[in-house]
Amino acid sequence: xxxxxxxxxxxxxxxxxxxxxxxxxxxxxxxxxxxxxxxxxxxxxxxxxxxxxxxxxxxxxxxxxxxxxxxxxxxxxxxxxxxxxxxxxxxxxxxxxxxxxxxxxxxxxxxxxxxxxxxxxxxxxxxxxxxxxxxxxxxxxxxxxxxxxxxxxxxxxxxxxxxxxxxxxxxxxxxxxxxxxxxxxxxxxxxxxxxxxxxxxxxxxxxxxxxxxxxxxxxxxxxxxxxxxxxxxx
Length: 234
Prior knowledge:
By secondary structure, the protein is an alpha+beta fold. 40% of the residues lie in helices and 12% in strands. It has helices at 2-20, 35-45, 64-75, 100-114, 122-130, 152-170, 186-193; strands spanning 58-62, 140-147, 175-179, 199-208. The mean pLDDT is 96.
């Protein structure tokens, strides 16, 4: 029994470390990731639960020239992020409210502070945001889509799939950054990847090895204490 408990504790520590060490990395090394590793990550992630096993995810894995064409199409579109049209779905509320407004501001100020960007340096903020569209220099950029005929339940399933990718990547010493910023640029992305009209762009994701020399990767977000959002009842 003691041996079994020790084994369970060791396994829990490994899983917990993969989850806790996951974070949004915003600067990557150019070191390439081989296709077999990417396939392994996606195959493991596809064990995510989905209602009646519908598995609503579709993934476009891009590297090299294709990834660059996505970046060019967005950055050369002339559409600034604050003017981009979220006409497929809205990620954020139209009007932020508490406690979410405070958390959002703390996240933004913390990231820009790590980069030495002041609160009124709008051009520098925009330049940093635009780094989303080069996948923060990661060697692999993924675009995720879902059939528009599916409903909210499948979007919940999709979130679990995305989390599995990020945790599986950590188990292999890789990092990720999930990027909703790609969604409003579906018109620029579709022709590059030949995405059918019935598919909605959910988000993008950068995958690669962290560049630990970059200040933005020193930034850490906090988490609200359990007491503020958990209720136990008996």
